[in-house]
Amino acid sequence: MTETEPSIIEHSVEKAHIWLKEIADELGVEDRQYAYRALRAVLHTLRDRLTVDVAAKLAAQLPTLIRGIYYEDWDPSRTPLPIHHVEAFLDHVVSEGRMAGDTEASVAVTAVARVLRAHVSPGEIDDVLAVLPDKFRVLIEA
Q: Does the domain formed by 7-140 have CATH 1.10.490.110?
């Protein structure tokens, strides 16, 4: 008798690989570890800037494994963080993703945002944008 993984786990791993490949493609790299760091950094920074309600609704549309990455180390009592400037948002991505600076972080945000828009409903993206300062649209809508 062989043990197999439940299909939800197999499906979630497959979806995570698809997302990481798409992010790596958007970044113009083949390094999936770097794509993972970018995804995690952007998701955590975005999540921490959203209201709890919007953060949870966005999470509901993420594949199971990606949702786990999204929720990792989250303290909803500390959100939303008062990040009102693009530079501060990028600084959080730099720190979270161990990136070289704002330019690298900006490229990461754009790449992850493109993949999010490809997999999350347009209405949910609109809800996310509605709670972010207008200045952030440049990053998310690129």
A: yes
